[in-house]
Amino acid sequence: MRLFAHLRELAGADRLEVEVEDGCKVRELLLRLSNLMPQAFRGVVRPQGELMDGYSVLVNARRAELDEELTTGSEVAILPPVGGGLQVVWVDRGHLNAGPAPRFQEALNDDRLIAAGATHS
After folding, report:
1. What is the pLDDT along the chain (121 residues), one digit of tens a residue?
2. pTM: predicted TM-score of the whole model, two decimal places
3. Could you tell me the CA-to-CA distances from 19 to 56, 92, 119 in Å, in that order?
4. Cα separation of 44 and 23, whole Å?
5. Domain 2-79 belongs to what topology?
6. DSSP-assigned letter for residue 27
7. Which H helix or E strand runs over 90?
8. Residue 108 contacts residue 118 (beta carbons within 8 Å)
9. d(CA 48, CA 30)
10. Hey, where are the domains in the chain?
11. 80 in helix, strand or coil?
């Protein structure tokens, strides 16, 4: 699971390895995480396993519904609310670059990505 912004800070990592059985639903994973790490997920996951307003979840780099089933190797990302757009930093041929990311999913999956953050409008 990939974490961004304050979730990454609260969890102390940008990735978490969580074992689930095939067929586990996104909602069930969110509930499990909120029970395992209540400080990190308070204000993100409601008691029914729903995300708070503005948050979204991706499974394998595409927006997912809470009742979507996960399979072995699924990569889940919780995205916080953003405003004003996403700024990214990446390395290309040894040069550090920074700028807006018009294609959000591509930016998150780019191996050259170093950091991403929301700009405020």
Report:
1. 887 777 788 778 888 888 888 899 999 999 998 888 888 888 889 988 999 888 888 888 888 899 999 988 888 888 887 655 555 555 555 555 555 544 444 555 555 544 445 444 4
2. 0.64
3. 21, 34, 33
4. 23
5. Ubiquitin-like (UB roll) (3.10.20)
6. H
7. strand 86-92
8. no
9. 9
10. 2-79, 86-118
11. coil
